[in-house]
């Protein structure tokens, strides 16, 4: 079956809309000669793998690295970048007693690389947080090629450099794979870790050659230079052959709402084994996806009266007549390949069925919306359900598929729902072929899943981006993306996991119910004809630089010669360290602490009380909202309830329980302007960029019924405030009334404009909406005016607000377009509602937001 056939089979019988199909053509390869330095043994090991000749770019990059030039290999996914670095590294290690370091941003990638090194006669090993203590000592003394990550380098190797002296003295190569991932605040941290490594190497008398690689880095030579602080040459001319890709953009349908006494549900929408429909107050609401083979069940309930009356069957059509009374009229499926159009049909008899509650809701980035949105807004079928349903169909058809899901919880849900879809289709024997994969699983669990996927034992895997990078799994046929992954770089990395053994791949981007996804599936050029994002790095960020100077000084006192390497000044060092005649010293009793990944501290361990079993870990930054006392926590399809969150010990104690509600944290935020760095005065509008202090606190959580999304109650929480000093962009508007809006509507208008602007910022800055915060108010204490703030969610800022300020007109124009183009009447998650709003999306005014943005854009146009 070709990729297009597979796509056609998915479209069949579904109401989700394919908004665009992009076909990326296949390309043939350009082989070259093996460079002279590659020894016979290596060539024969490669021949055993079926690699007879290098591609031209591999030979070019390998030769540059062999000659000691720092090089970045910036060719496509599956173009053989690994071999390009392995040729010089392995050849050198075989010829001398040199050592090499390989840095990868994920553990999965390091494990994958280790596998690809078997066959070469070099002692290579993974050295990361999972490596047992005893093994670490041995590796330090005898390891030749160590595969590790920047965190390990920072925490484990550099502070103990004296113990690593033998290894560092012989260090000839440092490979930085997937170098585009080192961006934003994390990238700035890694840039300093690399500078610290370079400084120590110099003390031990070496200056290793850096080899960087990424399929999705923009301006590779400049980006690689910024990261390493060295001049780097780029190899960009991709000479590998490439299979074609069929890339479909898919928009899940709006869920039909059955009003009392009239309305209709599309049969395929209603007939869903993977999600029954449920009723809400005074009206019945149809939800669901298509079942395998078009068979399914429909369940409708009239919740207010408590009268759950009818459950229907079918490949058919449903219509409601009166509260709490629903009739279901089955309809015959359409011809193959034809898309269903909703509409009533009454020529088939009715049947009754039983209600089952849907399994779980999600409150994480891939937020599982209730059947009706907040304030009665229409909602789309969630991307999670649509993905799960597509995944079940693909597994049933034997198509090996990786479904990327943005949140850990979402990955669990997709796997669980896909299994349920298979069970409902009486394909129980296939449920073992589906699993979830995410960071936070234990090492053995992850390795076992990777192996099973590779061997074909697993056919469908729902994974977070922990499996996005570099993992080479030949034979994967399809990739599903549950929502835009936040950057084009991620999009192409995820898409690049399929089609690696030459067969045409299918990639489907399933839009989430948010403004950016809605915009993208209707503007394919913004995906397919836009370069990958610039790798924004700011090693000069004082929140990043300062701590690394302390680390560097703790490793070896800093001297004046070190200042240019870090871009630091003597004044800065004087403020941080003790100055002595021989340099600047760290005099603290404990090692300086640095939060490399900006996760807000050490991860919190999730532990099952009773058994003491460690279920996994959760970022410190997410702990308050995800594992607060009372929170429902999911792990490998099992549900747990948190009894206690011990922030001092970094542990959340949970017990297995399956309540019929989900939990959703609520927070409150306050913002103060500290300083203004730049402003644009445009008549009634002033646009500013500056430093702000944001104080936020998770204060409560809601429990929502799984079957209907209905809010059961809101319970207070007693968690500490969190402080963030960061950078914000904001605008103020004057006028009477402001932008022609009634004063009572102004807060809703600003709030709606803020939400949509946050949703659209990833279009112009390398971030996703979970990296950004916002606040709007009809009168802010510092500006005394109606103000909308959008700020970076990282200490010291991450460059996103700055980018928003620089490209404000493009950003706000896209925001306005996304709101105005949305077909909903009064605001929905596709335009102005936000899945992470601390105020429950209240108040919001969609028309008001358009007016605010019109006023801002008109004013900015006058100064353009
Ligand atoms: N010269 C070659 N001839 C034939 N096959 C090759 C050659 N070079 C690499 N390969 C094979 O191509 C596949 C992809 O290689 P690799 O994983 O190194 O790609 P990559 O560029 O690192 O991809 P990604 O960016 O997705 O990580 C591997 O299975 C590898 O064995």
Features:
864 residues, alpha/beta, seven-stranded parallel beta sheet, globular, binds adenosine-5'-triphosphate
Distance between the amino and carboxyl termini: 53 Å
What's the number of extended β-strand segments?
35
Mean of residue pLDDT? 81
State the secondary-structure class: alpha/beta
What level of helicity do the residues show?
A: 25-40%
Helices, by number, come to: 25
Net shape: globular
Strands of the widest sheet, in order across it, are: 1-9-22-21-18-20-19
Largest sheet data: 7 strands, mixed
The share of residues in extended strands comes to: 15-25%
Rg, rounded, reads: 28 Å
Catalogue the unreliable spans: 257-371
Q: What small-molecule ligands were found?
A: adenosine-5'-triphosphate
């Amino acid at each position: 079956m070709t990729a297009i056939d597979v796509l056609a089979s998915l479209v069949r019988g579904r109401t989700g809309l394919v908004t665009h199909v992009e076909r990326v053509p296949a390309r043939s390869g350009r082989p070259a000669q093996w460079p002279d330095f590659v020894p016979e043994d290596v060539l024969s090991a490669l021949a055993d793998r079926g690699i007879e000749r290098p591609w031209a770019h591999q030979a070019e990059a390998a030769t540059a690295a062999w000659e000691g030039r720092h090089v970045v290999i910036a060719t496509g996914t599956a173009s053989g970048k690994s071999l390009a670095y392995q040729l010089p590294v392995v050849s050198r290690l075989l010829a001398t007693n040199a050592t090499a370091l390989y840095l990868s941003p994920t553990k999965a990638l390091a494990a994958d690389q280790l596998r690809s090194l078997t066959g070469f006669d070099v002692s290579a090993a993974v050295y990361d947080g999972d490596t047992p203590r005893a093994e670490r000592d041995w590796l330090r003394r005898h390891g030749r090629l160590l595969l590790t990550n920047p965190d390990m380098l920072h925490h484990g190797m550099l502070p103990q450099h004296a113990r690593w002296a033998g290894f560092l003295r012989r260090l000839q190569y440092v490979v930085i794979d997937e170098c585009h991932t080192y961006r934003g605040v994390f990238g700035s941290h890694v840039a300093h870790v690399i500078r610290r490594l370079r400084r120590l190497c110099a003390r031990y008398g070496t200056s290793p050659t850096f080899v960087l690689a990424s399929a999705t880095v923009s301006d590779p030579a400049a980006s690689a230079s910024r990261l390493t602080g060295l001049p780097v040459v780029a190899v960009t001319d991709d000479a590998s052959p490439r299979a074609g890709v069929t890339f479909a953009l898919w928009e899940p349908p709006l869920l039909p709402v059955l009003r009392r006494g009239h309305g209709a549900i599309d049969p395929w929408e209603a007939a869903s084994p993977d999600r029954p429909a449920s009723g809400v107050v005074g009206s019945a609401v149809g939800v669901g996806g298509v079942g395998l083979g078009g068979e399914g069940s429909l369940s409708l309930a009239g919740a207010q009266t408590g009268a759950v009356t009818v459950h229907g069957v079918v490949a058919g059509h449903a219509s409601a007549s009166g509260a709490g009374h629903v009739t279901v009229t089955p309809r015959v499926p359409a011809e193959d390949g034809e898309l269903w159009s909703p509409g009533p049909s009454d020529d088939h008899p009715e049947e009754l069925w039983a209600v089952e509650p849907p399994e779980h809701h999600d409150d994480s980035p891939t937020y599982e919306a209730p059947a009706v949105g907040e304030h009665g807004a229409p909602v789309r079928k969630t991307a999670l359900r649509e993905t799960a349903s597509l995944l079940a169909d693909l597994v049933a058809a034997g198509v090996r598929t990786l479904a990327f899901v943005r949140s850990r919880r979402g990955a669990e849900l997709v796997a669980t729902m896909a299994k349920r879809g298979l069970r409902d289709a009486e394909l129980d024997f296939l449920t073992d072929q589906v699993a979830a994969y995410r960071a936070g699983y234990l090492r053995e669990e992850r390795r076992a899943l990777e192996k099973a996927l590779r061997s074909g034992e697993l056919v469908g895997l729902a994974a977070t981006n922990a499996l996005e990078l570099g993992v080479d799994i030949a034979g994967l046929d399809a990739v599903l993306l549950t929502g835009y992954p936040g950057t084009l770089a991620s999009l192409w990395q995820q898409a690049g996991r399929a089609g690696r053994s030459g067969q045409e791949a299918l990639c489907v981007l399933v839009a989430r119910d948010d403004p950016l996804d809605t915009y993208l599936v209707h503007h394919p050029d913004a995906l397919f004809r836009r370069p990958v994002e610039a790798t924004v790095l700011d090693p000069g960020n004082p929140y990043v630089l300062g701590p690394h100077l302390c680390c560097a000084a703790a490793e070896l006192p800093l001297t004046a010669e070190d200042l240019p390497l870090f871009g630091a000044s003597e004044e800065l060092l004087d403020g941080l360290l003790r100055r002595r005649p021989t340099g600047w010293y760290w005099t603290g009793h404990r090692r300086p602490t640095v939060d490399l990944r900006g996760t807000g501290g050490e991860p919190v361990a999730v532990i099952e009380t009773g058994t003491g079993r460690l279920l996994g870990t959760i970022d410190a930054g997410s702990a308050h909202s995800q594992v607060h006392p009372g929170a429902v926590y999911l792990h490998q399809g099992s549900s747990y309830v948190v009894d206690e969150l011990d922030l001092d010990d970094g542990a959340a104690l949970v017990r297995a329980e399956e309540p019929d509600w989900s939990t959703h944290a609520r927070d409150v935020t306050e913002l103060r302007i500290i300083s203004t760095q730049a402003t644009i005065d445009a008549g009634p509008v002033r646009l500013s960029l500056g430093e702000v202090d944001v104080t936020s606190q998770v204060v409560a959580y809601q429990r929502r019924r799984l079957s209907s999304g209905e809010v059961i109650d809101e319970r207070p929480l007693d968690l500490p405030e969190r402080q963030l000093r960061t950078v914000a962009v904001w605008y103020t508007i004057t006028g009477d009334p402001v932008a022609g809006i009634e004063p009572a509507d102004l807060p809703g208008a600003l709030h709606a404009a803020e939400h949509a602007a946050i949703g659209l910022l990833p279009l112009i800055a390398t971030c996703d909406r979970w990296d950004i915060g916002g606040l709007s108010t009809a009168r802010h204490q510092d500006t005394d005016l109606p103000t909308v703030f959008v700020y970076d969610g990282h200490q010291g800022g991450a460059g996103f607000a700055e980018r928003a300020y620089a490209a404000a007109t493009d950003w706000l124009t896209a925001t306005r377009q996304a709101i105005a183009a949305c077909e909903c009447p009064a605001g929905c998650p596709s335009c102005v509602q936000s899945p992470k709003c601390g105020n429950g999306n209240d108040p919001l005014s969609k028309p008001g937001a358009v007016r605010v943005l019109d006023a801002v854009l008109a004013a900015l146009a006058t100064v353009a």
